[in-house]
Amino acid sequence: MSENCNQTCSSCSDDYSEKKEQKVDFSEKPHELSRIKKVIGIVSGKGGVGKSLVTSMLAVATRKRGYHTAILDADVTGPSIPKAFGLNEKAEVTDLGIYPARSQTGIDIMSINLLLENDTDPVVWRGPLIAGTVKQFWTDVIWSDVDFMFIDMPPGTGDVPLTVFQSIAVDGIVIVTSPQELVSMIVSKAVNMAKKMNIPIIGLVENMGYFKCPDCDKEYKIFGESHIEQIAQKYNVDVLAKLPIDPKLAVACDRGMIEFYEGDWFDNMVKILEEDVEKKMKIAVASEKETVAQHFGHCESFNIFEVENNSIIKEEAILNPGHKPGFLPNFLKDKGVNVIISGGMGSSAIDIFNEKGIQVITGAEGSAKNAAELYLQGQLISTESVCHEHQYHAECGE
Ligand SMILES: Nc1ncnc2c1ncn2[C@@H]1O[C@H](COP(=O)(O)OP(=O)(O)OP(=O)(O)O)[C@@H](O)[C@H]1O
After folding, report:
1. Which of 172, 191, 281, 390 could pair with 200 as two cysteines, CB 3.0-4.6 Å apart?
2. How far apart are CA 396 and CA 311, in angstroms?
3. Amino acid 120: pLDDT
4. What is the pLDDT of residue 318?
């Protein structure tokens, strides 16, 4: 070592064996208001194998287990997530940051299509601009209280997915393949990329492996025999799910109804993902004698349900402290509430809850506890009902 050594190896021209390998940290911090517990990247060797479909279905399957889930659509040149969820409104851009759009069952979604004026405009950008956009989806979007974020990665194992993996702290990847691909080569590339980036591989999903005849139940291997098990063995990874070709799936995507498609292929996989995510939340129901109140600000009390691992472990009723402008959303936020359920609610209260990252479900009725349980089962869909009645407008809207 030179006697003039100042330990700055990167700018030193001397060639010493002790010279330290420089590790450059490209990782970006999420927005300061974001809270994200687990990030899963969905990758594929090439486009069109069903990566976006698998991303969507994973978000839906985890949402059905009561988690707050999100999708970051990093497939900037071929964004198909908003269409699969039937999202028409744009993401809200504020001085604080960008708020993702929310699907009908409460999945937060960010995609380039939610920012473009016309979602049929082609995105003909080069790699660095694409990677920069994805980074902004991580750094500038406010992802509130997300248990699972699924990233629909750009297809392939090239420069763009690599930059995305360097910038975003991904906890694991899922590799999607279909039998007609050069599966072994593609899986080996994805495995090598994950190893280089030091990201655990959660496993493989085989899509379009077979078609089941609806008349005779016989299975046809449209794209030839599957070799997924041998490949999984070779690379020492698990096969997490095998999806058939199902025309109903394609129709559900085309009609924006993917979150209402019934399929259980991902149930086991969700259990694997759940293992180290501690799931605690609080649901508040605006109520009138244990029944969902129809006017949020005017309700008698809030039934607060504390949830752990999708089960209610504690409940209490708090009297409504009164309705001053903007007071109740702050009051419930201070109580640690993540979800508010009501019959109706004024638009300004909805906006404040949304800004605070609290999910609003309106249009509920019947027993307050039943509403909370339906929410946990993923069966309580918000009607987005807004109070306009003159009598209650002030109370519900403030
Ligand atoms: N198992 C399936 N059964 C029926 N249709 C499917 C299935 N998987 C995918 N599809 C359909 O195939 C098309 C391509 O799927 P998808 O967009 O998920 O692929 P992708 O790998 O994300 O493609 P890209 O990388 O180009 O975005 C979609 O129209 C989707 O609805």
Report:
1. 172
2. 29
3. 65
4. 93
Tokens, residue 89 = 């409104």
Distance CA 59, CA 124 (A): 28
Q: How distant, in Å, are the alpha carbons of 165, 280, 290 from that of 373?
A: 37, 14, 14
- Tell me the average pLDDT across 237-244: 89
Helices (H), 202-346: 228-234, 247-254, 267-274, 327-334
Q: Ligand 1 centre from 244 Cα, in Å? A: 12
Task: Please give the domain boundaries of the chain with CATH numbers for all domains.
Answer: 36-274 (3.40.50.300), 280-397 (3.30.420.130)
Task: Report helix, strand or coil for 370.
Answer: helix
DSSP strands (E only) in 45-94: 69-73, 92-93
Confidence bin at 25 (pLDDT 50/70/90):
low
Q: Scanning the structure block, which residue is given the tokens 């009609």?
A: 255
Q: How far apart are CA 347 and CA 165, in angstroms?
A: 38
End-to-end CA distance of the chain: 69
Residue 70 has pLDDT above 80, yes or no: yes
Distance 348 CA to ligand 1 centre (A): 38
Calpha distance 107→116 (Å, rounded) = 20
pLDDT on residue 26: 61
Pocket-forming residues, ligand 1, beta carbon under 6 Å: 44, 47-53, 75, 78, 80, 155, 207-208, 243, 245-246, 249-250, 253
Query: What is the distance in A from the centroid of ligand 1 to the CA of 206?
Result: 12
Q: How many CA atoms within 13 Å lie on the side-chain side of 17?
A: 0
ipTM above 0.90, yes or no: yes
In 3D space, the residue among 164, 163, 189 whose CA is nearest the CA of residue 175 turns out to be 189
On whether the CB atoms of residues 109 and 100 are closer than 8 A, the answer is yes
Work out which ligand 1 atom sits closest to the CA atom of 250: 31
Q: What is the pLDDT of residues 180-238, one digit of tens each?
A: 656 677 777 888 878 777 788 888 999 988 888 888 888 888 887 888 888 888 877 88
Dist. CA 202–CA 272, nearest whole Å: 9
**In the chain, where do the E strands start and end?**
36-44, 69-73, 92-93, 98-99, 101-102, 108-110, 146-152, 172-177, 201-206, 211-212, 219-220, 239-242, 280-288, 291-292, 301-308, 311-319, 339-341, 359-361
Q: What pLDDT shows up at residue 39? A: 93
Binding region: 45-52
